[in-house]
Write a structure and sequence with these properties.
Layout lengths: L19 H32 L13 E4 L2 E6 L10 H14 L5 E8 L11 H20 L9 E8 L7 H10 L7 E6 L5 H12 L4 E3 L15 E3 L4 H12 L8 E6 L16 H13 L9 E3 L14 H10 L3 E5 L2 H12 L8 E6 L12 H6 L2 E6 L4 H5 L9 H10 L11 H22 L8 H5 L11 E3 L2 E3 L15 E7 L9 E4 L2
Parallel strand pairs: 3-4, 3-5, 5-6, 6-7, 8-9, 8-10, 10-11, 11-12
Antiparallel strand pairs: 1-2, 2-4, 12-15, 13-14, 15-16
Helix pairs in contact: 2-3, 3-13, 4-5, 6-7
Amino acid sequence: MPHDRSDLFTPPDAGGTSGLWYRSRRWVRRHVWWLALCLVVVVGITAASYLNRPNNDCGGPNSGVHKIGGECVGVTDGGYPYDSSIAGLEHRIALENAAVSGSGHTVTIALLDPLTVNDTSAVASAQVGYELEGAYTAQFRINHNPAIGDQLPLVRLVLANWGSHELEWQPVVEQLAAMVHDPDPLVAVVGLRLSTVQTQQAAQDLAQHNIPMVSSIATADELNYGAIRGFLRASPPNSEYVKAIQQYLAHRPELDSAMVVYDANSDANPDAGTNSGADLFTRSLRDDLEGQLAGLIRYPAQNYVGRSGPTPANPDLFTSITTNICAASPKVVLYAGRVVDFDGFLQSLRSRVCPYLPLTVIATGADFGGLRLREQEAALRAANISIAYATEADAQGWVAHAPGTPLGFKAFYTQFQQLGFAPADLNDGSAVSIHDALLIAAKAARLYSSSDPAHGVPSANDVLNQMLNLNNLNAVPGASGQMSFSYRAADSGNPSNKPIPVIEVPSSAEVQTSEVYLTK
């Protein structure tokens, strides 16, 4: 007869005091807090893991890119697309990188810039694409033809994004600094196109790691080799652009009175908030205009709030400025602002209350060509407005073989077209300037290697020591000019004998074509 086991399931109120049901209930009651604690720990670990998975939203743990402040920032070899609009370009860079990586004769150069942008960025989305076209053209020329002489070392190009307002410069610079010991070592950083406090801070940090830099179009005077060791630029500083404007005005003696219009972000407090900080470009440009053209300025300066520096004020409010321009009636308006705000200013001038008064607007900026002002001649004439701007490159004129076209432009332009890029993409200067910046860095790397091939690939420090030897027979044949660098105190990082086109639209009788000023 089977043994009776019914007492195991007898509840205590039914007379069973030691059954399995009671013991199980007592075990659960005794250990339920342990179970709850374990559940809390598991949930916490899972949540923390989710919240701290920086790479998962930006291409995976090996992408080199992670999300900070809602943007994907970091360093990629082209394998992670920062935006769908540039994915094809990044893929082409990635393929070129794969072809040269691990050869034993390859160095890495990083392009550091805002590669994700928004409505308040100083860089437009299209400009990011133009910049990558220029960078890829430079990489292809460096690796596949003798654009700068010897073809070793080869160049691997990585793309470093520090966000739409460069706010995440510090973690990205840390990533770059760690790459100097890679098998294909990082030897230079190019780009750094914006003259901002963030660019200045990042450059100072890179200098502490002995990593040389070549800015494409950062023109603020204080961003120089004397202040930041190893900081070169493909574009001249603001002071040289204003000297070019002076030379232009020497041909226009009737333009004898001026008013300055400047971006109020030039006076921002760099400690006021995460998106603030003085705009070094507009501040430096305003100072140069007021210093070098002091005899021309007869009226109080006017300011506006530019879009590229988010502040509590509403941007692009030009109505009161145009009203004051009409009241003062200067012959010239000296514009000390960024290109991103210029079109709004120009629209306001076209609808000013004094269209019968002729007005000349003078501006400087490496990317003014992107406004296609030459195509607006009829509208400008109708509004009684003329514009003269000093710029980094006059691709539109150089394609047509304008006087002063740099010797190196034709080879660059031919390669640019052969790679399938549109000539119109050169107009704003981004492609030309980053191409030249990359050539400068690669030329310094090859200068080291050619001095003693037995040394193998150079380090960042080796390249740094060659930056001021890029002169005489070792000058860089850039698309925008034959660039030369040597020790000249604070001017050491500025290119010598670099042409600065001054373009007038519509052309006057005195100036039929673009003027060309050579830097000192």
